[in-house]
Amino acid sequence: MMTTKRRMNVSGQFKIQQMAFMLMAVIVFFVLAGLFYLMLKSTGLNKGFTELQQEKSEALALSIAETPEMSCGGVVDGGKQGCIDTDRLITIKNSKAYQELLPVSSIIIRKVYPEIRETKECESNNYPECNQYTIKENNKGYDSGEATSYVNLCRRVIDDQYVKNKCELGVIIIKI
Predict the structure, then answer these.
(1) How far apart are CA 90 and CA 125, in angstroms?
(2) Which of 8, 105, 130, 167 could tie 122 with a disulfide, CB 3.0–4.6 Å?
């Protein structure tokens, strides 16, 4: 009689242990599933933040190109959108006051077409035979992002006793 009671006691303890292990396994499963879900959600948030930063940077690049100091401002075809007057760039390139107003760490405007093989920084002595205008440059190396946008680079030229507009393709590179 004693052995059957003990066997029932051991059998009951065994079933309680099985139930405890099963509950622990279910809890661990739900914890792992929750962690996996949170990981997926945070990846999506990070991707969304990166895309938002990129859109913001591109809008900033175009808005800087549209500032009155840089834009063609009605000189070319009633003021094209995304048009930069290179004659004005030469003037504001050396202006320290203008550089302090801009909320970015670097602004570089490069002529893309027609192509000049080597990079020539534009100064008043080699203009227009150059292909890069560095308006503001930060060499501290902690830029948080970069945005580019294609723009028209236009200037006034005298051709057969007439003043004409000559436009070329360029890209504005903004480092934030």
Answers:
(1) 10
(2) 130
| Best CA proximity match to 123, nearest among 170, 95, 91 | 91
Q: Measured between alpha carbons, how far is 26 from 33 in angstroms, rounded to an integer?
A: 10
C-alpha span between 5 and 152 (Å, rounded): 95
Q: How far apart are CA 164 and CA 166, in angstroms?
A: 6
* Bridge partners of residue 165, in order along the sequence: 156
Cβ-proximal residues to 84 (8 Å cutoff; 6+ apart), any chain: 65, 70, 71, 72, 109, 151, 152, 153, 154, 170, 172
Alpha helices for 82-170 (secondary structure H): 86-92, 96-101
Q: What letter would DSSP give residue 166? A: E
Going residue by residue through the chain (176 aa), what tens digit of pLDDT does each one get? 555 555 567 777 888 888 999 999 999 999 999 999 888 887 777 777 777 777 777 777 777 777 877 888 765 555 567 788 888 888 888 777 777 777 778 888 999 887 778 888 888 888 888 889 888 887 665 556 777 888 889 888 888 888 888 889 999 888 87
pTM here is 0.65
